[in-house]
From TrEMBL:
<dbReference type="InterPro" id="IPR009078">
    <property type="entry name" value="Ferritin-like_SF"/>
</dbReference>
<dbReference type="InterPro" id="IPR014490">
    <property type="entry name" value="Dps-like"/>
</dbReference>
<dbReference type="InterPro" id="IPR008331">
    <property type="entry name" value="Ferritin_DPS_dom"/>
</dbReference>
<dbReference type="InterPro" id="IPR009040">
    <property type="entry name" value="Ferritin-like_diiron"/>
</dbReference>
<dbReference type="GO" id="GO:0004322">
    <property type="term" value="F:ferroxidase activity"/>
</dbReference>
<dbReference type="Pfam" id="PF00210">
    <property type="entry name" value="Ferritin"/>
</dbReference>
<keyword id="KW-0408">Iron</keyword>
<comment type="similarity">
    <text>Belongs to the bacterioferritin family.</text>
</comment>
<protein>
    <recommendedName>
        <fullName>ferroxidase</fullName>
        <ecNumber>1.16.3.1</ecNumber>
    </recommendedName>
</protein>
<dbReference type="InterPro" id="IPR012347">
    <property type="entry name" value="Ferritin-like"/>
</dbReference>
<dbReference type="InterPro" id="IPR002024">
    <property type="entry name" value="Bacterioferritin"/>
</dbReference>
<keyword id="KW-0560">Oxidoreductase</keyword>
<feature type="domain" description="Ferritin-like diiron">
    <location>
        <begin position="29"/>
        <end position="179"/>
    </location>
</feature>
<keyword id="KW-0409">Iron storage</keyword>
């Protein structure tokens, strides 16, 4: 086995030289700015998801669909957790999380949606979850082997989005299609 692994002493030297960059170590400089942009795009998408699910929570509550409404609220809170995780990672990478409402739709991948009834709302959320799943898989491909910490974070988020999609699919199967 060849000694590919950088010696501990050298790693320590690099760490000392670059203390000002916080968690960003010498081995990971390339593509960091691009990754911050990607994570900010994901953050914008997650913000839209927080709002869409929250809006649907109140709409569903209004039509006495309490079980579905509760699910929407739960998802909204989990999307907010994703926002926080992404923002924290962006800061660790030396970037600035972009919370500006201006341009959030342009930066994000998600849409706000206009579900007219319960069936449409669930369907809309399911589509957006599927978009998020595909997007996060692309982000993982972009990161490759460069940043295991960001990879672990995206995988953790991706797992929740897959759970969301499964839950919504189950809810959808239990409902008759509505056209009102
Ligand atoms: Fe999310
Ligand atoms: Fe989700």
């Amino acid at each position: 086995m060849s000694m590919e692994i950088t010696k501990h002493k050298v790693l320590r030297q690099h760490a000392r030289q670059h203390l000002e960059t916080g968690a960003v170590t010498h081995s990971y400089q390339a593509g960091r700015r691009d990754l911050v942009s990607l994570l900010n795009a994901a953050l914008a998408s997650e913000l839209i998801c927080v709002l869409r699910y929250r809006s649907h929570y109140f709409l569903a509550k209004g039509i006495h669909a309490s079980a579905v409404a509760a699910e929407f609220l739960h998802h909204s809170n989990e999307e907010l957790q994703h926002v926080d995780w992404l923002a924290a990672r962006i800061v660790q990478l030396g970037g600035e999380p972009d919370f500006s409402p201006q341009g959030v739709i342009e930066r994000g991948q998600s849409i706000f949606g206009t579900g007219q009834n319960l069936y449409e709302m669930i369907k809309e959320n399911l589509i957006e979850e599927r978009v998020a799943i595909d997007h996060y898989k692309e982000v993982l491909g972009f990161i490759g082997d460069d940043d295991p910490t960001s990879t672990a974070l995206i995988q953790k988020i991706l797992q929740t989005e897959e759970e969301h999609a499964n839950e919504l699919a189950s809810l959808l199967w239990g409902l008759p299609e509505q056209h009102n």
